[in-house]
Description:
The chain is an alpha+beta fold. It has helices at about 25-35, 60-65, 95-175, and strands at about 45, 70-75, 80-90.
Amino acid sequence: MADDNEFGPVDYLVVEFPGNKMTGEGFPILLDLVDRGIIRILDLVFVRNIGDLTDCVRAPAAQRAGVRSGVCFPIVSMDRIIGTMDFFTTEFIDLSESRASALRNVQQLVSQRLDIVRNAETSAGNARDLLDTVDRLRAATSDATRVADEAVSRASDMTGDVAALGDASNSIGDVIR
């Protein structure tokens, strides 16, 4: 019997539906796995007839509003799904491969742009933190310079006091002799 971990963890799992039709029967299982963080759906989902989704709580309201077909894809930023883009139509349509490919490109471009914006925000925050650190170092250097100047001044005063004590000691010594 082969070891269960013989091949290591699974990085990607592709789920295809017979005839490229999703009837909604597998949705509860997939959603449960997504909710538990076991899997992430990173591809678009197309539903030709919203009414076929028996496990979607929003399907009846969508049907009453005249929604027939829809497509949804996740927006991924910093390796996390942060939202979705949903498109609906009031007509029954079939999603062609070229349109699916175009939507995947939109998904990728939007996700990349969000990463760029978030990286810029992170860089700006890091730059502000660095400037704050430089300001604190400048203030600390100023304080250190002031303390050093005071120490030099006091040392000069003490040198004068020691010289005066030396002169006084010599004078006392002259008086005693």
